[in-house]
Amino acid sequence: MVFTPLLIAALLPIAARAANDWAQPCFGECNWDITSDTGSGTVRIAGPSAAVSDITPAAGWMIMDCDPNTADQDIRLVCQDPSKGCDHIYTDSAAGTLVRLPKSCGSTPFALVTRDWVHKDQSIPASKRSSIVRRDGSDPVVKGMSLATNFADVDTPTNGNVTLFLMGSSVPGAAGNFTVDPPSGTAASKRGLGSWIDSSLKGLSQVHAELIGNFNKNITGSSPINFDKDFPIFDQKIDCPQNGAVPAFSGEAKVDLDAKVDGTVNYGIAASGSIIPPKISEFGLFVGLDTSITGTLGLGATLTGSISSGKISVFEVGLPGLDFPKIFSIGPTFSVNVEATASLDANVDMDVDLAYDVKGMELFFPPGSNSQAGTFTPGDSNLKLSVSPNVTSHGQVAAHLIPSLAFGISALGGITKATINLDLDADAALDLSLTAAALASASTSGNNASTGVGGCVDITSGLAVNAGADADFFSIFKKGLQVPLFTKTFDLFKGIHRQV
Length: 500
Prior knowledge:
Layout: H1 5-10, E1 29-36, E2 39-46, E3 52-54, E4 61-65, E5 73-79, E6 98-100, E7 110-118, H2 126-129, E8 142-148, E9 162-169, H3 190-213, E10 223-240, E11 249-276, E12 279-301, E13 305-308, E14 312-318, E15 322-324, E16 328-344, E17 348-365, E18 375-378, E19 384-387, E20 391-411, E21 416-436, E22 440-443, E23 448-449, E24 453-469, E25 482-497
Parallel strand pairs: 3-6
Antiparallel strand pairs: 1-2, 2-9, 4-5, 5-8, 6-7, 7-8, 9-11, 10-11, 11-12, 12-17, 13-16, 14-16, 15-16, 16-20, 17-18, 17-19, 19-22, 20-21, 21-24, 22-23, 24-25
Domain DUF7223: 296-470
Signal peptide: 1-18
Keywords: Signal
């Protein structure tokens, strides 16, 4: 196995130094980290020396008036120590330069200078004068700068393109253990960038396995996805009065599901492109999943014909997201949908279980060779079936329990947004062809049917994982994209019985 720089760095102790070094100025290139109790990440920006600069104390600047909660604004600042490189921002001109901001200024890590001038307010608070270093004892000139973060709307010539490489993880503290090492030279071609995304995500999945394996999963590492509910899917009654020679009749079809999902999910992202001009060239998403899916489908029908519930949403909750302000954000949600269909020609009462256990599933989008199913184990269907007497019963029944993960992504100040959906469609399907001389029943217990039943009962179960997107995302994927990531089907029971 070839270990990427990402993976090698990831195996360092958790106390490893973050990529962003506030003691070093951001001249031409630098990193910026996000750290929180819900995730971590690093973005690396680089460009010509004149295109990327710094207005933090590391570059000698002191900002006096700045709203820490506002992105686009005018600020006052002063060069407090020229020896640290204040003049770097004027390599070509300050206007059109992307600058790193201190944490105390603005709500974003970087902003574009659209204008600079000598501010009419030359006052410097006494509390800040003591930190000013001027060898000749002169008063520094207070500057004004306009900062903007809507990169697509800024009508200012830039000093050159500024590239970005970004990696993020839902595991807190992971950013202190990896570095973003972008390709260079011929490796920076489109194919090379795609390979960088693939290898970075694969390395990130191994980082997660290492870090989560050392943590108590109930404390950190993976987000829980839990659902436990009993609810009706379909319930319809029909009462018809007598009509001439046709006698009155009534009937009911009822489908309910007692469902439970219990698991954890972790994810990571990698992206490459540029801030100036604003564009994401390559993007990838990794999702690690461990979960058990269980449910009991109950069907009671005294009607003949076909019924369909359609897809029904029964649950939705947000999961912790990642936000590189004005650069890239991802917000996942967990939801559960259910669906049932039946086509019957006799009275049928049935219970059948949906039971699946998924461990170590790894999914990648856009799909590639990295995806793997881990271990997938179906449980017993526990079929309980009874049919009305003296009838021939033909029919099909299918039930779907569909936990879904939706990842809403927004890039570069929201100029492009899309949602990536991962649907885990757990299903159970029955195909019936039975005759009954008396009130009778069938069960998967012992793989046989009771006296009086003849014919065939075929039960299958499966899990299908499908990915899709609801909008264009630059040129990486298109609206309506649907991709199967994993499919597996099991024949749980197949019985052919004769009447006795």
